[in-house]
């Protein structure tokens, strides 16, 4: 029986080529699939706490070498990471987190997720902001973003009044120092919480000093409103 050849249509040849590439690429690159399952970033932490942990939980599936796995953390939309861990190497602290991380911290016992987290020692207010965790391999990448505020309670607070030269007028001033984030302060008067009203002529001034805010609010009242003898 004579042999004859049948030409494969162009569309079929293209489909066959694409299918071959899809089969070939995972074998070449290691067949990674990465998915971040949870980003554990506390929304609030007090300034000067002993430490805080930001954890980036993810799953990674592979059928080959893990040399393409990289975990990076970014701060405040910067294109440069503040932390980087390349699988098989030691983690690195960079930028604003240089010297502020416990690099020996192990978030898990699994070799592919051991150094996924940030262990920040003594967090301070300048570390407030947006944190992005990025996990990538040769064939896949995933990321997640959350915000953390490092707050500071006032270091001092006082309220005082001073008589002015104007007849029967009293200057009321409230002063708080060392607060973060920037506070909103008002002075109000009333017989109970429901009847409180902002004092007329209220003046508020805020200033940033050493990573925290000093705020003062002052207003004028008639002496009769204070029952001051």
From TrEMBL:
Keyword DNA-binding carried by entry: no
UniProt keywords, alphabetically: Signal
Signal sequence bounds: 1-30
Positions of the Ig-like domain: 26-151
Tree of life domain: Eukaryota
SUPFAM superfamilies, per database record: Immunoglobulin
PANTHER family documented for this protein: BEAT PROTEIN, GH04238P-RELATED
Name this protein carries in UniProt: Ig-like domain-containing protein
Species name: Clastoptera arizonana
């Amino acid at each position: 029986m004579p042999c004859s050849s049948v030409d494969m249509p162009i569309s079929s040849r293209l489909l066959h080529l694409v299918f071959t590439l899809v089969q070939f690429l995972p074998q070449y690159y290691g067949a990674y699939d990465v998915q971040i399952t949870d980003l554990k970033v506390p929304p609030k932490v007090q300034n000067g706490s002993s430490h805080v942990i930001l954890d980036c939980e993810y799953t990674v599936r592979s059928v080959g070498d893990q040399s393409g796995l990289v975990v990076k953390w970014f701060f405040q939309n910067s294109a440069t990471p503040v932390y980087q861990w390349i699988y098989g190497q030691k983690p690195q602290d960079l930028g604003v987190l240089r010297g502020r991380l416990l690099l020996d911290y192990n978030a898990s016992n699994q070799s592919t997720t051991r150094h996924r987290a940030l262990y920040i020692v003594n967090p301070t207010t300048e570390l407030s902001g947006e944190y992005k965790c990025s996990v990538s391999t040769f064939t896949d990448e995933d990321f997640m973003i959350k915000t953390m505020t490092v707050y500071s309670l006032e270091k001092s607070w006082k309220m005082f009044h001073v008589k002015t030269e104007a007849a029967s007028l009293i200057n009321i001033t409230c002063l708080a120092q060392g607060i973060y984030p920037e506070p909103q302060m008002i002075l109000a008067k009333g017989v109970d919480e429901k009847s409180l009203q902002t004092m007329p002529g209220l003046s508020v001034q805020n200033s940033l000093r050493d990573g925290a805010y000093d705020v003062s609010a002052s207003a004028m009242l008639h002496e009769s409103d204070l029952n001051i003898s």
